């Protein structure tokens, strides 16, 4: 197993009937970090020690990933279940509120959680995942975005995606990072091995892909997206090959207190490709909104 230093504490928590793994560092107000596909808590390795200087940082393995439990049913990965997981984690850790940070699929969960459990989120930070309403609009009317999201359609096939990801020692997992990153120095061989090892755990690949299988058809079915009152920051790597920059336009119509930071020389993996700048924006936003 790839070793990661920095005095991280590994723990498990039962939430929504699921055993979830997380790493934690620091003390104080809770910052909850939610990763995306095909990652796990490790995608926040550059942020955890910095944020832990002032907060209790918890980086979760979402259900189905790495060392968290992996339910077999596709419907176990519905957004509604994922939100209950987060609610249970916050309360199970002894908190009533948190600062919620999400990237990619973690951003999907974070956006929905902020709307559904507004009283539990003090501040919201999302990276390279647009507001759900804007994404739904683009997916239905923007041919370019439809092409960018081809993989979500491919993931609807049974078994074939898992077979391809497993081939050649999970080389496609590594390629997901190296082939789409703008900053080619962002991922060491150790980083890539960590992601491959997590994906190779029994049941993980199917669980990870089931996020797409379960939620693809019902994308953004929430009917009313009111104006969100929670202070929110969106950080966006400008060279994202999966999600176009235009998906960020007009986000301010959905969020009352909103900040947007574009980061050049970064693709989809923004907190790993440009960690120092991301950390700077995080600290500035958290200090301003104390």
Automatic annotation (TrEMBL):
Domain AB hydrolase-1: 30-273
GO MF annotation list: hydrolase activity
Cross-referenced InterPro entries: AB_hydrolase_1, AB_hydrolase_fold, Epox_hydrolase-like
Keyword Transmembrane included in the entry's annotation: no
Entry EC number(s): 3.-.-.-
Transmembrane segments: none
Matching Pfam families: Abhydrolase_1 (PF00561)
SUPFAM superfamilies assigned: alpha/beta-Hydrolases
The entry's keywords: Hydrolase
Protein name: AB hydrolase superfamily protein YfhM
Source organism: Hyella patelloides LEGE 07179
């Amino acid at each position: 197993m790839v070793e990661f230093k920095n005095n991280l504490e590994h723990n498990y928590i039962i939430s929504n009937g699921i055993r979830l793994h997380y790493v934690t560092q620091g003390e104080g107000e809770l910052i909850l970090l939610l990763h995306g596909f095909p990652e796990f808590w490790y995608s926040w390795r550059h942020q955890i020690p910095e944020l832990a200087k002032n907060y209790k940082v918890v980086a979760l393995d979402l259900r189905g990933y790495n060392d968290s439990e992996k339910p077999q049913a596709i419907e176990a990965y519905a957004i509604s279940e994922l939100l209950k997981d987060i609610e249970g984690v916050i309360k199970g850790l002894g908190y009533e509120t948190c600062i919620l940070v999400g990237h990619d699929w973690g951003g999907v969960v974070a956006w929905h959680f902020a709307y559904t459990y507004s009283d539990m989120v003090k501040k919201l930070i999302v990276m390279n995942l647009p507001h759900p309403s804007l994404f739904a609009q683009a997916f239905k009317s923007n041919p370019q975005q439809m092409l960018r999201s081809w993989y979500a359609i491919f993931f609807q096939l049974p078994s074939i995606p898992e077979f391809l990801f497993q081939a050649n020692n999970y080389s496609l997992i590594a390629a997901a990072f190296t082939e789409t990153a703008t900053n080619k120095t962002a991922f060491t061989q150790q980083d890539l091995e960590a992601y491959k090892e997590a994906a190779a755990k029994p049941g993980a690949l199917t669980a990870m892909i089931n996020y797409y299988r379960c939620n693809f058809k019902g994308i953004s079915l929430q009917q009313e997206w009111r104006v969100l009152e929670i202070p929110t920051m969106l950080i966006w790597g400008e060279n994202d090959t999966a999600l176009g920059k235009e998906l960020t336009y007009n986000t301010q119509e959905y969020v009352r207190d909103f900040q947007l930071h574009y980061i050049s020389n970064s693709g989809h993996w923004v907190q790993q490709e440009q960690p120092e700048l991301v950390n700077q924006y995080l600290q500035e936003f958290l200090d301003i909104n104390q």
